[in-house]
């Protein structure tokens, strides 16, 4: 209860951490997803200000309560510092959708503002439950943008016809490829399984299997698909799975079936009815390549040995992800930086900031290092260093970046084993302490976040050749780290 006062619980309800909120709703009701909160928003108004008025109770200043939602300014609880705040000014409602390893999405309502944001799971927010039967209402005029646009593809090589579906800006085959190649197989060597599930291809054959005008998707294409259907692994899975597969919702018409896989070394088939795997065209190294795995309860991109036999979904060439490109010119000093748009729509600088400020330095005080790696900033300097329209990312925003791309995919190709899958091009810029000692050039990099731990420490994204994290430690504000700016929404 706010301020541990039962009277506040009676008036405003309880404040729950995200983990507690996930299990709080009664039978027949559930914690709404991010998408369901967004549908609520679009139903009650077109602007943040209008939504706020229409969602707020009349007893809350200027609230019109046009739809009877009757939101009250219940405040919040910061459990990590045991602090209540914002009573009578704000309210926040948890969603079931994760926004990173340590965060989740929520609906934020204040006087003049209503929007879906994300924050740490250990905060205490209010809960509004949604009746389970309402889940079907997502397929409505309010979700028209998410409706699959269907078509067909005829493969001129063997005359087979496949269903296709447009999801976001991508056009996918809505059935598994069943074109015979030298290293492709029917599950259990039964033609009936090829007819139902398509063929299972080794990676080398999968690369060459798609018909003209279509090709094997890249890892980035698969990531874009995932984010088009949902942000959490658990919710992506039912949205991608055919309705004939246990608990499949097939909301976007992708219609994945549990086709299993083939282990060509031992000539063994497995996982029919439980899992499916789709190859990407992206190699991790000479032995492994990336694939999308889907099962009851999860969906995600990982790497597998190329000798496995997996399914193939071809992507129309005209809808494949283009190499990320863009530039930012800093009007303060005329420098131009590359930018990159990630699959979640966020635009990042693709180079380290090199704007001279007080309390920023070149590694070893060598201007050549500033030119290659950008400057190293204290936290206070970093907070003010980004150009207009850009900002220092929060810990949560870096956490979401890591959800999209593990460290090896963020590192520039010139950095040991770096894949640079999304054009982020992180370089091992090292760091310094009190501008007196410089450390680890060529070995690691650290990027400041805007998130303060306490008066003396703040969080950073840490990348090495072996790890990537934003959660483990908070660092001294006087340390000097690199800066990557994020474009304001």
Overview in brief:
With 489 residues, this protein is α+β, with helices and mostly antiparallel strands. The chain contains 12 helices and 35 strands.
Q: What is the helical fraction, as a range of percent?
A: 10-25%
Structural class: alpha+beta
Strand content: 25-35%
* Amino-to-carboxy terminus distance: 34 Å
Mean pLDDT: 88
Uncertain segments are 134-147
Overall body shape: globular
What is the radius of gyration computed over CA atoms, rounded to a whole number of angstroms?
25 Å
User: Care to count the β-strands?
Assistant: 35
Largest sheet: 4 strands, antiparallel
Number of helices: 12
Tell me what the structure shows:
With 489 residues, the chain is α+β, with helices and mostly antiparallel strands. Helix content is 18%, strand content 32%. It contains 12 helices and 35 strands. The strands form 13 sheets. Strands 30, 31, 32 and 33 form a 4-stranded antiparallel sheet that branches. A hairpin with a 3-residue loop joins strand 28 (431-433) and strand 29 (437-439). The chain is globular. It starts with 5 loop residues before the first helix and ends with a strand.
List the defining traits of the structure above.
4-stranded antiparallel sheet; globular; alpha+beta; 3-stranded antiparallel sheet; 12 helices; single chain; 489 residues; 35 strands
